Amino acid sequence: MRSLFFAFFFILTTVVASAQSDSLDNEIDTSGIMSKTLKKGFYLTHEDFLNNTPSFTKEFTTIKKAAAKDRFGHEIFRVKYDLADGEGKIKETLWGFADDSLFYVRIFASLLHTDYWKLECNAGKYPFAYVKIDQAGGYMGTGFLFNKVLPLYEIYVIDKNGKAKQATANYLKKLFAEAPEILEAYKKESKKGTNKVKSEYLLKFNTYLSTH
Does residue 7 register a pLDDT over 60? Predict the structure, then answer.
């Protein structure tokens, strides 16, 4: 029994050390993020977002949840909205919403709550968000022990259909196929597996698409 306990303790501490290292390495430098000014309001569709035309507007307050900072001092967080008129939640399924300065996109949804995450890059053909997840494989809120001890961060890309896709190395290689030079350069860097590398190449790819 004692040997089983020590074996479990060793595995847990190894995973924690690995996760802590990954969480540091996976932080991104957002100093060069592309952005555009989006009109305040609620967006029902991806098309509304692309056209910068809110489906409707209501007075609301943005409430930050799960706030954290990366090593560059940049804040990563999910949010919810609080309607000023006390109506509660909007009945329609939102794609996202914009307040006076930022845009938040729906990444995860469940019967209990919906998560809206700040877009780190809201311009270009492939915007992306920075999402906090837990080591158990779920997003913020699905784990208790793991969510407290092993927080990690992942990039989610908004594809051309408005769907949020996790920016795995394989996904990005397929995405970058449209720009061979960027793809070849990314293949050399992708082994690092860091979000910093992923974000840099997503920005390069978005810039490439804007000029071709």
Answer: no
Residues making up the chain, counted from first to last? 212
Residue at 30: amino acid letter: T
| Token couple for 111 | 């019967």
Are the CB atoms for 178 and 212 separated by under 8 Å?
Answer: no
CA 15 to chain centre: 23
The predicted model scores a pTM of: 0.77
Where is pLDDT greater, at 27 or 40?
Answer: 40
Least Cα distance to 193 among 68, 21, 73, 66 occurs for 21
Helix (H) or strand (E) holding 65: strand 60-69
Q: Which of these, 112, 90, 113, 108, lies nearest to 43 by C-alpha position?
A: 90
Q: Which two tokens stand for residue 154?
A: 């992942």
Q: How many helices (H) and strands (E) are present in the chain, helices listed first?
A: 6, 9
